[in-house]
Amino acid sequence: MSDVPRLGLDALERLGRNATFTPPEVDPRALRVGVVHLGIGAFHRAHQAVFTELAMAAAGRDDWGIAGVTQRSTSVRDQLKPQDGLYTVLERGPGAAPPRVVGSVREVLFGAGDPATVVDRIADPAVRVVALTVTEKGYRRDGTGRLDRSDPEVAADLGGGPPRTVVGQLVRGLQRRSAGAAGPVTVLSCDNLVGNGQVLRGLVHDFLDALPAADASPLADWIAASVRFPSSMVDRIVPATTDDDRADVRAVLGLDDRGVVVAEPFRQWVIEDDFAAERPAWDLAGAVFTDDVAAWESVKLRMLNATHSLLAYLGALRGHDTIAAALADDELAVTAEALMIEDVAPTLRVPDGLDLAGYRRQVLERFANPALRHRTVQVAMDGSQKLPVRLLGTVRDRLAAGAIPRQAALAVAGWMAYVANGRDARGRELPLDDPLAGRLRAAVAVGAGDPKRLVDSLLHIEEIFGADLPEQEGFRAVLIDHVARLTA
Distance between CA atoms of 304 and 390, rounded to whole angstroms? Predict the structure, then answer.
């Protein structure tokens, strides 16, 4: 590989146009930064960065380049900086387009290593949108959904240290922006949280409430007048990149791209049309602007994401390495469809123009795509954060309607068995990658060997299940039955 040149602007220009790949739709050298994105992982690069580049091309604009912030490690910066921010999106599956080289990312910052520059970027008058994909746990909420002030890094940010949390970076950036008269800005969450814009607005105000009143009051007034927090719903399956994926891109480009991201051909973005200032013409790239994101969001979280989690936990327990392999298991395929039909569909308010039965079939077709190789243990990560937003809303709505959500309970039981068993049907270790891993292991130790004790021990983790669900005897009984079978 050492004799293969690295992807970069000069190398790409030498390649010229080629039918085997799609070059950037805009001239990366001409782009000016107008978006700061917190959490520049694979999903952002396969989703919002692509929409943004296509929007600039369609509108003839060059002022929506992206400054991405990597929060947890330097890996993305180290991948992209030597490549002038360029990387390839490799689509897998039926209808896949040729590999696309994306040029909308113009800068990558390491938030933990250079927080002052992140604050400066947010305060830049040229920036009119700050967006986020930091996953559920990146918001650092406590069991009630408020900002977790006991988190050491949140506490350090509140104390005036260089901000290392996304909420701290946002507030300090907005504070600097206000002081510098940089103009209004929109803060756009793109994470899988119910009402993600409202959640983020609430966390920002939680942070302000913990500051001295002399600092907080004028900033709160400025935010009320100059900042908007629209909600959005994003959808694209983006599995982890493998060495084979990088080799395939190398064969097409003749260049070494260490920032390759893999995605399915499908992509969707629904955005609340509530912006404080100008926005990219994302609608020209296929995004939907609406006043009713909540309905779209609920369909996606409860049908697609919940079914993804069900297949991840039950599939991993059975020894299936990928979501596609899990769906090829006839029993799991029936269970996945039953979850959507029996438990989820009755709880939904269907958006205008959406065929729910067609959406359900499309979800299963996408999950069945074997080319994606989306690993079950990857989808199983952070279960304590995902269950409340993907499954427990459905559980509560069905219980309120007087029904026992047996299929949703099976998905929850799959998570419990995954946590408790620690190994799949083939004896391989199941990794427990979760911010509450210590609490979960302690709960499993209390309930070891007894399905009833195991369910009660996990069900009483209030950060996940609240105070209400442990009191639901019908739900608890079904969980115990499912867990007994899954842990046998």
Answer: 9
